[in-house]
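COURSE: Structural Biology Practicum
ASSIGNMENT: Worksheet 4, Part C
STUDENT ID: 0417
INSTRUCTIONS: Below are two proteins. For each, the amino acid sequence is given first, followed by its structure token string. Answer the questions at the end about the second protein only.

PROTEIN I
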Amino acid sequence: MLSTGSSSTEAARPLQGPPLWLLAELTYRCPLQCPYCSNPLDFARQGQELDTAQWIDVFTQARALGAAQLGFSGGEPLVREDLGELIGAARELGYYTNLITSGMGLTEKKILQFHEAGLDHIQVSFQASDEEVNNLLAGSRKAFEQKLAMARAVKAAGYPMVLNFVTHRHNIDHIDRIIDLCVALEADFVELATCQYYGWAELNRAGLLPTRTQLERAESVVNAYRTRLQAEGNPCRLILVTPDYYEERPKGCMNGWGNIFLTVTPDGTALPCHSARQLPVTFPNVREHSLAHIWYDSFGFNRFRGFDWMPEPCRSCDEKTRDFGGCRCQAYLLTGDASQADPVCSKSPHHHKILTARAEAELPQPPIEALTFRNERASRIICKG
């Protein structure tokens, strides 16, 4: 059992609602080496993973607080041999469950096992629409064929076909081919998510950030496909997520810091978003504190809640209730100060950093081989740094 720690006073709790979405990052282990992975750069030196009983205790505590949706993520969650047991425990607790996977290590037998355990949803990620680029980005010669096979198997098992393609300057010009592949696979939902520049993607930004022209063309192609698919009566839904770097106002990141989203990392560190570990903030661990204490009382989860922490121009901005000052991780990575206004915002005194990044994207494209791939060796070199 994990430590129960201290609990919040009842008087404080009405100021903050419960966590609704729990992301369980079960492991940082992964057979692939995607250069845009959101895992921390120093994942190789992270502590021992929570065991089965500890994860189930986390699920139990989060459910008692009000969490309704549980995502299994990583790394690659399929490397955990207890994944089926964790899915079953989550179902017994009443969660809606989602497996976010590369498909590597997935089999028809496991899909059946997870279905019987009560898994509600499986999302399979691809790197590209053609085998060569997909496998080069993944760092595996077998990745593309495995993904195709498992996407079909997920569909055959009765799950909605949910595919995810992370798009960037090395594949965005082929977004029409990506959509054609999704249609051929009878996808129900397709997330075309351009890189968000945290973790390994931030390290590789110069080789990943597309130009504005590329983005505008991609948006035009997606809209044309939406019109065509609707006319054909095809239920496939295309969801296009554009990068913050071409916006003039920041997104309301995670619907506000520590508002509805709770991440627990492989070693038990609790975070208000999956990228927050890179911030110079001490976050609590579920081995030492109860989730109630972590969510309601810990410094890390209260650091950027509300509006009192905001500097100008955010503090007096009439849009702060919509964007909450933007992304704290983005602010830190671009300015070195997590309390600054998100530089994506044109009102930010650091907006020039975004303009510089856009200009850099117009430079000649580096080859894929020039990217730093996410693997233990690279992580250990970065740790020594």
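PROTEIN II
(use this one for the questions)
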Amino acid sequence: MNTQQQDGKPGEAAGEVMTFWDHLDELRNSIIRMLVAAVLMAVAAFVLKEPLFDIVLAPSRGDFFVYRWLGAEPFELQLINTGLTEQFMIHLRVAFMAGVLVASPYILYMLFRFVSPALYDEERRYGLRLTLWAYLMFLVGVVVNYVLVFPLTVRFLGTYQVSDEVSNMLSISSYVDTMLMMSLVFGILFEIPVVAWLLARFGMLRAEWMTRFRRHAIVAILIVAAVITPTADAFTLVIVSLPIWLLYEMSIWIVRSVEDATPSKPPRGEAS
């Protein structure tokens, strides 16, 4: 018997029944398309080496726009290479990450396209909204790290000296690894409001609880910031902790908005 999609219920298109192997084949095709898109964008990024590394290395220069906005004193950071194949491997790695980032809208589209037929209409709407917000918040986290957190960290640590007799020379590998790691971490951390919204929708999180345990959350934020901070200096710790704390406060407001929009259930025993 053919499976049809009626009354917003999940199912296959009219006149079409997909077996387990059909779904598996569709998943394989989707993965291949996503990989091809990522590889094509990575090849394009690899070819565009100069503009790519102009963006990557911009925070290491004293004329970076963030430093000009803050009125910071000019500084010079010398990056060095310490391995025979290091620069080429860094070029490959950065190009691949850039390719995945550029192809990410298509990758998310293919994933949602594969999953959405199994969802009800309401689940599909919420799923689309959740996916878009999660993706946008991840990008915001990456941008915040690139524009604010990473440049200030580089400037502070790159110019810090225990003595004038000791000069700073930072390896390109250390610079790129720190940038990629911090970008990934901040992209994940900026999912906090999305996770809070999702938990509030399921009734697993309340704004009252988050407000009551705010002090405990601040301590936890400092601990998390200390773990993900590449150094132990107080300046970097504060710079990393501040956006996370703002995300926590935003999450309280989001959870409270969800609670206000959700009708309260009548007490037990009360006639409906």
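ANSWER KEY EXCERPT:
Q1: Residues 108 and 121 are 19 Å apart (CA to CA).
Q2: The longest strand covers residues 79-80.
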